[in-house]
Design goal:
Rossmann fold, Arc Repressor Mutant, subunit A, 6 strands, 12% strand, six-stranded parallel beta sheet, alpha/beta, 46% helix, globular
Length: 228
């Protein structure tokens, strides 16, 4: 019988090694990634049954990575493995399409059972989370659709990369767009958030931990440069 396939994503090598050690006896690990953009490429190539990923990752955070994976591969299950135990993180993870949410502190005991649960269509929530969080409605349709900032997908991507200290030229290369397009989205993003300097962008991103709170605003095609 064919074993379920997994892709693992975390920016810490020790975490990746630990997950692989725990999961290899039962699942086929078809790849691992250390940033969100590498994860997207890997998921598209391998089309795994389950992606296990962290929220805080460079280049593209786990929340936005999950959103894009679910659009591309709607049948792939998403399990977050993170240190974040706050309500906003939990609800946003499920809004992005997660089927499971685990804390790294309990990964050794819960990671295998969580993956088995989501593969059968169930939802798995870490036992270490508070009763309030464990009783949240986890169906995407039941979650609040309140927008934190109204940023588009591209604006959130630019926000993260600018906050990481990357130049407009570097951001353009990563996103495969022109520098002009990056500056356009940076201006729109900062205007929406009421930010005026790159330092303020970094402070805002650190406060939000690059989790992309709130669903993306609908893009207005007439307002977007052609290569965006």
């Amino acid at each position: 019988m064919k074993r379920p396939t997994l892709v693992l994503a975390d920016d810490h090598t020790l975490i990746l090694h630990g997950m692989r050690r725990l999961l290899e006896p039962e699942f086929d690990i078809v790849g691992s990634a250390k940033d969100g953009r590498a994860l997207l490429r890997l998921a598209e190539t391998t089309r795994p049954d389950v992606v296990v990923l962290d929220i805080s990752m460079p280049l593209l955070n786990g929340i936005d990575s999950a959103r894009q994976i679910k659009r591309l591969l709607p049948d792939t299950k998403i399990v977050f493995l993170t240190m974040h135990a706050d309500r906003d993180y939990v609800s946003e993870a499920f809004r992005a399409g997660a089927s499971g949410y685990l804390l790294k502190s309990s990964a050794e005991e819960e990671l295998g059972p969580a993956i088995r649960a989501v593969l059968t269509g169930r939802v798995y929530v870490a036992k270490d989370l508070s009763a309030e969080l464990r009783n949240l409605p986890f169906r995407k349709s039941q979650l609040s659709t309140k927008r934190e900032s109204g940023l588009s997908t591209r604006e959130r991507e630019v926000l993260q990369l600018v906050a990481e200290g990357r130049s407009a030229k570097e951001v353009a290369a990563i996103l495969c767009v022109s520098v002009k397009t990056v500056e356009y989205h940076k201006y729109r993003m900062m205007k929406k958030l009421g930010l005026h300097t790159t330092a303020e962008v970094a402070t805002y991103a650190a406060r939000k931990s690059m989790m992309g709170l709130g669903p993306p605003a609908e893009p207005q095609l007439s307002d977007v440069p052609e290569d965006s």
